[in-house]
Amino acid sequence: MDNSGILPRGALQSLLDALTDRGYRTIGPQVRDNAIQYLDLADVGQLPAGWTDDQAPGSYRLSRVESPRCFAWATGPQALKPYLFCSREVLWRAERDATGKLDFSTSQTNGAPVAIIGARACDLAALALQDRHFLGAIRDPYYDARRDTLFIVALHCAFPADTCFCASTGDGPRAKQGFDLALSELDEGFLVEVGTERGAAVAAQLPLQPSRPEQHRQAEQEIEEAAHQQFRQLPSRDLQSALFARLEHPRWDAVAARCLSCGNCTSVCPTCFCHAEQDVPALGGARTEHVREWDSCFSVGHSHLHGFVVRPETRHRYRQWLTHKLGSWHTQYGRSGCVGCGRCITWCPVGIDITEEATAITGDNWEPRGSA
Amino acid sequence: MNPYLPREAQIIKRSEESPNTVSLLLRLTDGQPYDFAPGQFNMLYLYGCGEVAISVVSDAEDSGLLMHTIRALGRVTRGLTALKPGGRIGLRGPFGRGWPMTEAEGQDVVIVTGGLGCAPSVSVIHHILSRRERYGRLSILQGVKHTDDLIWRAQYDTWSALPDVEVMLAADVAEPGWHGHVGLVTTLFDRLHLAADRTVAMLCGPEVMMRAGAEGLQVLGLNADSIHLSMERNMQCAVGHCGHCQIGAHFVCRNGPVFRWPEVRSLLGTRGF
Ligand code: SF4
Ligand code: SF4
Ligand code: FES
């Protein structure tokens, strides 16, 4: 990967313009409804300059800081996932004519390719996992089409939230792969790193200036500090076997007593992929749409099996979420399903902390009753 | 290829197996070939309503037609079972890993089913009976809740009259006029004479029954790896994407629905998985 130079702060718009010229729909972080959200971004003036986020279990607050920086914050509730795996989308349509004949058609419309500005390391790691899920043996054509044209401008993290633990999962704070361009933000501008040929072509159009070694040193140091500031971590042991050996651990009951089974955690998690399918008939009956929407293992319907629910209690559902995310993912996708973004901790209305639960459940020498 | 898009199928024939169970004989209207293996399933789509996973019961070599036996349990299945010949539905499939038919060649086969004339076992019975020379002795053990539930009564009679086929039926609760065995299907194991070293077992039905069945067969000397179970879970996408069908690390739609006993033993019967 190349370090191409520094893009002066005042020239950041040139990056958006270069992407727009190439036909991209540019998406970037902005303050909306008291949170940082990734939305259509036409002007760098829309970026959250001078904002930071304070995150804690069950709490997210934005506040102002004296800083010219646009990325002096960690994560918003969502980032890349909704742009690839949409929260709601029509998979196909069926039409029925007067004779009862059915006609099925796909509704795939390839919109403009998307360029995302400011993707974090955790989100890129999550994207790599979603790729494995949706583009494995059977490819999801909708995800595939959007993924194929996605342009990613990553941003190395220097401002982790208290809920972040990407250093412990090995996914951040430096973005290591999966980007076209990566930026390190300094007060005076952005160090630009090229990840792909596509990225190099865009970088070549930018008014870059030569960067100085001390600027690189400073950027490096900020990333390192971001890792050191993180105090949450997942236990480093083999969580898959530890969790499945403790399916009857009393802590499951304790966490279930607090958990509202609301599914906030799964909807903010950048790796969660569950979705439900549903038919939405048009009035008149000649046409119907088959829609998919994000679902959660915390919903009653998730494990419904004709007249019977496999996971009737919150305890079963929380256990499903944790044993899947930190356990079964290893078998399914070769690694844990957690990238340490901390979103599920922040957005849980009762502040349940995945690192704390995983530690409590797997950290002792608990054995099932009756075993030696 | 869009793995979510159904094909159109037309109902050629409809037969009532029991008051709430109907068999539909289907023909795909696009004329394209359709191949499946016993134990695999299709997603059947009721217009304007949704899809449901149903296993194929016909034999794979049945002249371009395929048969599904559907029990009316929910919105989609109630609608499907109410359709008339000529009616049209959507169909995607086949999906999943079926029964180990190649591995079972040259072996005796024991089929243990519980509940409503378990559909996944019917395709395997058809498969074996139409390739009789490839398989040894066939034992069919069917458990039902009430003797009323026993669908395919006539089929069981026909099968039991065939050479080298034994059919044993057990009812949990006997109705007047029932002369068969009363008790759980696993209590029939006492009467089973197995050559344990050359027998493959295939189980389907309620999980408690399959657990008891698999354990019982192991007691009779069967190798754990020779015991296969057909699992059921909420299925929506059938291609390993939607996440609903997971049992531990398995996607039942893709890694199953047929599993070897050791693959599911640890979680089968653990509430919540
Ligand atoms: S489990 Fe929580 S911390 Fe881990 S990736 Fe999902 S939302 Fe982020
Ligand atoms: S852990 Fe928190 S966010 Fe997740 S379902 Fe329970 S209450 Fe909701
Ligand atoms: S049915 Fe969707 S993942 Fe198996």
Question: Mind explaining what this structure looks like?
Answer:
The complex is a heterodimer of chains A (372) and B (273). Chain A is an alpha+beta fold. In chain A, helix 5 (166-169) links the parallel strand 9 and strand 10. In chain A, helix 9 (251-258) packs across helix 11 (314-333). Chain A contains 13 helices and 15 strands. Chain B is α/β, with parallel strands linked by helices. Chain B folds into 2 domains: 7-95, Translation factors (Elongation Factor Tu (Ef-tu), domain 3, Beta Barrel); 108-264, Nucleotide-binding domain of ferredoxin-NADP reductase (FNR) module (Rossmann fold), CATH 3.40.50. Chain B is 17% helix and 33% strand. In chain B, the strands form 3 sheets. A 7-stranded mixed beta sheet of chain B has the order 10-9-8-7-11-12-15, with helices on both faces. In chain B, strand 7, helix 2 and strand 8 form a beta-alpha-beta unit. The longest helix of chain B is centred in the last third of the chain and has 13 residues, at 207-219. Chain B is globular. Chain B starts with 6 loop residues before the first strand and ends in a 9-residue tail after the last helix. The interface between A and B is large, with 57 and 42 residues. The structure holds iron/sulfur cluster (2 copies) and FE2/S2 (inorganic) cluster. One iron/sulfur cluster (SF4) binds at residues 268-271, 325, 338-344, 354 of chain A.
